[in-house]
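Regression test case RT-17, inverse folding.

Input:
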């Protein structure tokens, strides 16, 4: 029989029923909608059916696990679900660890969900931690939780938030507390001898108040994916201090298995230990559940051959990661499960050709930079790789105002590699014209557009686009990183009603902000990525700011790129990350950006996609529908 089957779709069509039956027999759900009763919720809000089942499933899972991932698209009501999961009649203490700009929003959500009878306390300083008492909900900003006494620049060449190249010199980094164009802090704290400085609030809770809090909610948990940052350590300290933890995220994973490993050790270490994993051995985990590319290179110098081996992580996740380590401690919820009234969502990658003279210079400069980068890389020296990537991604968006490109040798002496031609800033370049055409077309339909741009300081693409769009008669507002986190919601309410286009770095609005007002004061149903972020977490969060319950208009998202350049390569890389990340959440769409993943997916992912397709064909429905 197998000899007549030529592809996975045919295999699943023949044996799909058996595969489904084996999966059901192997899994014992802790909560099954339609079979298990829902508990009685004492809330001011009425949960939607899907939310109620998520809360019931979460409560059941937490009877067997100390931690739980609650994953869901932006707008499904993860905050409400977490509050409902932990709320009960008897006195309790619940701590929320959240980004600073949403702490007030968390307090508002708690009061609107369970009422004013339960106290809500904001922890704003180290002194507040030493005075904790009573019961109810407590909220601490993550920057407050990790606070120390003094600061020092981070030791990195790339921003830990968005991955872009850091342009500040070491002297500039040391002179003041710098931040990236995306708003990420480029400094960290140092240790001192005083106990209140040596111990952060999170560590103080762990050392002195263990057991004081019953529950912990970690908001935007994907931002704690690092194994070493102070913020990630603060989360670990708090999780070790409470009985139960829920980690909320709209983007559980960024396309690499390594993104999940540190969090899994905090949430579900038993399954990892059972497989023989060690916390410090990240390579073994990625080899089993991710993709590792190995390279063997041979170079010759002075008549002697030298060989070297290198390994690098590639986008990709084995579906077995979900079954072995996530299945029992994860609950996922999607917008289409919460509401039947979601607007249509259209995503499109828009390719634009470079002008011939720019393209010629791009190829010339790229050849010089690549040659030098490979010469150094053969000696395991990667100092030119970041420079090369920065130029090839960004020069074509701002082909003027560039210094000589090169690197510092071992003695700190600058070694020039390539000069970049300067073109006229008075020209309107092809991608700029495409952006203008899109904004004018959307405006003619009465639709506002929000434009995402990465280069906002040294090569200020934002200011350039603002001028081009304004000269064409559009009203433009620019959200800059100088607008503090807790003031951005108010900034949008003030500026959005009177503008046609708003421009910002995507990281400035990636969490906690909606780009439409339910009262109708403003609405940005169109999002345009003029430049694509390298962080899948930022991409996924920013790309869903408009697609929400109660959004009255169809939503459109455009990703602009220059064809046959590294920008096109970047789009394909992000599509592979997205395909891997969404597959782990049980989504196998072939639309939008995911469609570009092409044939890079594994045989296991292809099989899962085929099974999912058959499930769709059998018209399987949720039991609550």
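Golden output:
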């Amino acid at each position: 029989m197998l000899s007549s089957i030529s592809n996975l779709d045919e295999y699943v069509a023949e044996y799909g029923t058996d595969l489904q039956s084996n999966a059901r027999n192997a899994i014992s759900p802790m909560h099954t909608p339609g079979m298990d009763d829902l508990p009685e919720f004492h809330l001011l809000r009425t949960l939607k059916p899907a939310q109620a089942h998520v809360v019931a499933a979460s409560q059941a899972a937490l009877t067997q696990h100390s931690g739980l991932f609650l994953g869901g698209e932006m707008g499904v009501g993860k905050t409400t679900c977490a509050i409902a999961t932990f709320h009960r009649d008897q006195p309790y203490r619940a701590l929320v660890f959240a980004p600073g700009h949403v702490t007030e929003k968390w307090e508002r959500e708690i009061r609107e969900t369970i009422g004013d009878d339960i106290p809500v306390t904001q922890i704003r300083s180290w002194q507040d931690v030493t005075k904790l008492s009573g019961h109810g909900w407590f909220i601490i900003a993550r920057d407050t939780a990790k606070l120390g006494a003094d600061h020092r620049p981070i030791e990195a060449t790339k921003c830990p938030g968005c991955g872009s190249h850091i342009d500040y010199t070491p002297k500039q980094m040391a002179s003041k507390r710098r931040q990236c164009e995306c708003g990420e802090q480029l400094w960290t704290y140092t240790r001192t001898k005083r106990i209140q400085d040596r111990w952060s609030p999170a560590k103080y809770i762990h050392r002195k108040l263990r057991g004081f809090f019953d529950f912990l909610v970690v908001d935007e948990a994907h931002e704690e994916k690092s194994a070493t940052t102070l913020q990630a350590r603060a989360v670990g300290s708090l999780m070790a201090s409470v009985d139960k933890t829920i980690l909320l995220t709209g983007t559980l994973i960024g396309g690499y298995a390594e993104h999940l490993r540190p969090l899994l050790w905090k949430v579900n270490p038993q399954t990892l230990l059972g497989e023989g994993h060690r916390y410090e051995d990240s390579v073994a985990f990625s080899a089993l559940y991710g993709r590792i590319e190995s390279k063997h290179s041979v170079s010759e110098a002075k008549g002697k051959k030298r060989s070297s081996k290198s390994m690098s992580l590639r986008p990709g996740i084995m579906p077995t990661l979900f079954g072995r380590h996530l299945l029992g401690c994860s609950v996922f919820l999607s917008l289409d499960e919460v509401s039947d009234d979601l607007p249509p969502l259209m995503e499109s990658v828009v390719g634009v050709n470079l002008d011939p003279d720019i393209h010629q210079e791009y190829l010339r400069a790229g050849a010089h930079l690549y040659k030098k980068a490979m010469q150094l890389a053969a000696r395991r020296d990667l100092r030119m790789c970041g420079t090369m990537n920065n130029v090839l991604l960004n020069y074509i968006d701002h082909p003027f105002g560039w210094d000589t490109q090169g690197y510092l040798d071992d003695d700190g002496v600058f070694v020039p590699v390539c000069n970049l031609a300067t073109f006229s800033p008075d020209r309107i370049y092809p991608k700029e014209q495409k952006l203008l055409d899109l904004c004018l077309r959307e405006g003619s339909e009465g639709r506002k557009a929000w434009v995402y741009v990465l280069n906002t300081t040294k090569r200020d693409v934002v200011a350039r686009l603002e001028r081009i769009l304004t000269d064409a008669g559009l009203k433009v507002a620019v959200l800059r990183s100088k607008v503090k986190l807790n003031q951005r919601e108010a900034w949008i309410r003030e500026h959005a009603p009177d503008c046609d286009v708003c421009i910002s770095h995507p990281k400035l609005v990636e969490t906690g902000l909606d780009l439409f007002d339910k009262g109708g004061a403003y609405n940005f149903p169109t999002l345009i990525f003029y430049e694509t972020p390298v962080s899948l977490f930022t991409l996924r969060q920013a790309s869903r700011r408009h697609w929400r319950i109660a959004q009255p208009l169809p939503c459109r998202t455009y990703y602009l790129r220059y064809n046959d350049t590294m920008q096109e390569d970047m789009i394909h890389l992000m599509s592979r990350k997205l395909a891997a990340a969404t597959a782990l959440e049980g989504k196998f769409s072939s639309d939008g950006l995911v469609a570009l993943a092409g044939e890079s997916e594994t045989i296991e992912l292809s099989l899962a996609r085929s099974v999912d397709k058959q499930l769709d064909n059998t018209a399987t429905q949720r039991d609550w529908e």
